[in-house]
UniProtKB/TrEMBL annotation:
Organism: Ligilactobacillus pabuli
Name of the featured protein: 6-phospho-beta-glucosidase
Species lineage: Bacteria, Bacillati, Bacillota, Bacilli, Lactobacillales
Gene that this polypeptide is encoded by: bgla
Organism superkingdom: Bacteria
InterPro entries cross-referenced by the UniProt entry: GH (IPR017853), GH_1_N_CS (IPR033132), Glyco_hydro_1 (IPR001360)
Signal peptide (from-to): none
């Protein structure tokens, strides 16, 4: 297994949450441009933080922070058009971005698809339609052939598990109906095709899945709560990594679905593809742990909580998301659990035993720009320091973590909360309502991370 020799100090972003320029140079609409927005008070992705036009300035700032890697995503609809044609101007834009990263000696790590499914594919059934698998296969073949000489580190599909669990807010399909498991299967087959094609087309190419992994705790030592955590760990986490890394359907998931009258098996024509194309590493996005209990008949699901962190999940007779009474929360109601990251890493390593790259980890917060253009985000430094300490402890315990790429490199449009929920090391001066001049200002966390990188750790 070829692994990057040096630990990668990076950061992460996605195309739709940063680029803007939603109809520039032939880009066509994705579901992020067309989906029903349930909150018109927050910024949409039309301008975002205009990374499309500011990418050189942003990369220069990230170089100044000492980054050795940057995770970006390509916008599928900038590159492939609804008629299947290739948009040369879209390829040219990402040529310029990749070439500039390499010029600055920053390793590009590219996510092929980060929540921004082409709208015309969604209109034709999205991931419930096997044609979408073929469309994705054609798309990634263009990527690997065009960029494979310069991009050697690839991530497949960002957080398929969050897409499966989320409601319509992202591109979600509802778990309440069996169709979502057909979508799960098609997403996982698409990922396998990307792994196969990357290994065929990209010399020395390395590729990994990139789910959001939050270890699931039982609310109590009640045996029924333990089983609820076992089941939700399978549904939320291991379903995705078992398919990707072990080439199997997770058996606990399979039994759970059978109880729901759903049969999920690898189709015979896919067995060779699924079992013989395995990833080189795991990209792992972690924000918090999750906690569930066994719901009593008639017990309602938790209401009014953030759906990103699995508190609102609910399958009658199986599991119910709950708030962990032993953990604090941030101002966006997301639980804080750095020890959970160490445990998640050690459990994941115990199951899969391949390198793990932390491809997202960060704190969304209301940052304040002072009159002299400073941002004193000690709360973000504390969050990152605690989670990096957990990673270093996991490494001491034998987990081969190959990189730390916090979310996010620069402020961007939060999926759920617009620009107000800021994650970046670099502040972008706009509000949800007023784009202003989009000036960039390094935060205190930028200078803290610069020092960490210089020291090679905490
Ligand atoms: C992850 C996504 C990122 C980003 C992050 C923060 O699940 O991969 O794209 O959205 O969550 O979530 P939010 O923007 O909702 O605060």
């Amino acid at each position: 297994m070829k692994t990057e020799k040096k630990f990668l100090w990076g950061a992460s972003l996605s195309a739709h949450q940063t680029e803007g320029a939603v109809d520039v140079d032939g880009k066509q609409p994705s579901v992020q441009d067309t989906r029903q927005r349930d909150n018109h008070e927050i910024a949409d992705f039309t301008v975002a933080v205009d990374h499309f036009h500011h990418y050189q300035e942003d990369i220069d700032l990230l170089k100044g922070m000492g980054l050795t890697a940057l995770r970006i995503s390509f916008a599928w609809t900038r590159i492939i058009q609804a008629d299947g044609g290739v948009n040369e101007r879209g390829l040219k834009h990402y040529d310029d971005v990749i070439d500039y990263l390499l010029k600055q000696d920053i390793l590009p790590i590219v996510t092929t698809y980060h929540f921004d499914l082409p709208d015309h594919l969604e209109q034709a059934g999205g991931w419930t339609n096997p044609d979408t698998v073929q469309a994705y296969s054609d798309y990634v073949e263009v990527l690997f052939k065009h960029f494979g000489d310069r991009v050697k580190h690839w991530l497949t599909i960002n957080e398929p598990n969050i897409m499966l669990l989320a409601d319509q807010k992202i591109v979600g399909f509802h778990r309440e109906n069996p169709e979502c498991y057909a979508s799960f299967y098609n997403l996982m087959i698409a990922e396998k095709i990307a792994i196969k094609k990357c290994h065929e087309l990209v010399e020395d190419g390395q590729i990994g899945p990139v789910p959001n992994i939050s270890l699931v705790y039982p609310l109590s030592s009640k045996p029924a709560d333990i089983r609820a955590a076992l089941t939700f760990n399978a549904v939320r986490n291991w379903a995705y990594l078992d398919f990707s890394v072990k080439g199997r359907i997770n058996p606990v998931l399979q039994a759970h679905l059978k109880d729901m009258g759903i049969t999920l098996e690898i189709q015979p024509e896919h067995l060779e593809l699924v079992q013989n194309n395995l990833p080189d590493f795991i990209g792992l996005n972690y924000y918090t742990s999750a906690t569930v209990s066994f719901p009593q008949p008639g017990e309602a699901k938790l209401a009014g909580v953030s759906d990103q962190q699995s508190e609102d999940v609910y399958e009658p007779g199986a599991y119910k998301g709950v708030t962990n009474p032993f953990l604090k929360k941030n101002e966006f109601n997301w639980t804080l659990d750095p020890l959970g990251l160490q445990t998640t890493l050690e459990v994941t390593n115990d199951r899969y035993e391949i390198p793990i790259m932390i491809t997202e980890n960060g704190l969304g917060a209301y940052d304040e720009l002072t009159a002299d253009h400073q941002i004193h985000d000690q709360y973000r430094i504390d969050y990152l320091q605690q989670h990096l300490a957990a990673i270093e402890q996991a490494q001491k315990n034998g987990v081969p973590v190959c990189g730390y790429l916090p979310w996010s490199a620069i402020d961007l449009i939060s999926v759920h909360e617009g620009i107000a929920k800021r994650y970046g090391f670099i502040y972008v001066d706009r509000t949800d309502k007023d784009v202003k001049e989009l000036k960039r200002y390094p935060k205190d966390s930028y200078y803290w991370f610069k020092q960490v990188i210089e020291k090679g750790g905490l």
